[in-house]
Amino acid sequence: MTNYNLYCDESGNSGGNFLDEQQPFYVLVGWIVERNLSYRAKNRVTFFKSEHYPNKDELKGVEILKGNIGQHNANNLFKELGEYCSPFFIIAEKKYCLAAKIVETYLDPIHNDFVPTSHTWMNKERKKIADLLYNFCNEGIRDFGSTYKNPSLDNLSKSLKMIINDLSINGFSELADIFAGAYDYMEDIYKEEFSMIDHMPQKAMRSLNLPVFTAFIQLIEKFTSNIGIKNVKMFHDNTKQFEMAYPEAFGWYSRKKKEDIEFVLENGQVILSSLKSLRSITFSDSKDSPLIQAADLLASFINMYATKTIHEKKLSPELIKFGKFLMGGLLASDQSGGEGFCDLISSQYFKEKLLFNNGLISEFSKNDFREFPGLSIYKN
Which of 26, 38, 49, 203 has its CA 20 to 30 A from that of 356? Predict the structure, then answer.
């Protein structure tokens, strides 16, 4: 049985501030490598550091990627790592995540008599509503974000009023009336939402980190299970806020259950109830782990590309080159039939910007993954 290690880090952590204009995205990245080849991948990163950044204690994306030379070096490193590793990533757009959270909060069938129970599983429909809020309810989303930072029953009610007002002004009066059905349950919504959000240590549920982490382990589990990998150990950079929360969330899925269940949403998305390939999570100091440093570098590069794309800023030549790398991953996942390398939790607006920015999409066919490293994992 072939064993694998997964080395992870993140970029764009702004805690409970979902509307930080300087950090509109949160990105979680992992490099997966066969365990008996991990020393070769680590040596590549160590050599890269000694060759280009010998005076740095460790590789940090926010420092290295400031200029074209650093971006060029990083692009070369990713290509080299692709001989041994495969990168996985999730990009979460914070504003869209707030819009999705509004749908989850106020359109819960338990707390809104105008919402049928079947709506719980209509993931595609709920995403469409979140997209609508994203595009037409800027004030309501901003107010809801403030409520998450300063929760109170009064603030939660005011946020609902603002959202209903935004919808009505923009001609969505029918949807506004459906949202109004939540008014009769505001105390219950508040108790459930904010008692749960404070359940996890260090207020972990008040940030995107934990829900994105759970989505990430689902992504890794599906991929590795589908291609027959049975033993994966996860190594994450030390993170004081989440060193208790992540293992607890990992335990929700890794504990043995009487029955393994797959929940299938109406758009075909599968949610696994248990983990079979992912075996453990360990926290490591990035200074001692070259591949966690490589994960930091990739997460920072993805975040930079996404941020410049959403802000419609001109991309450097090396960022355009990196965009081909990113598109390769997205297209590879699209063709993989559920064995995806990555996931986007984002608005349709950002997806279209990402796909068509700088004409990158025209350079690819859906069978051309040459710009995406690490597909050698399929050979094992």
Answer: 26
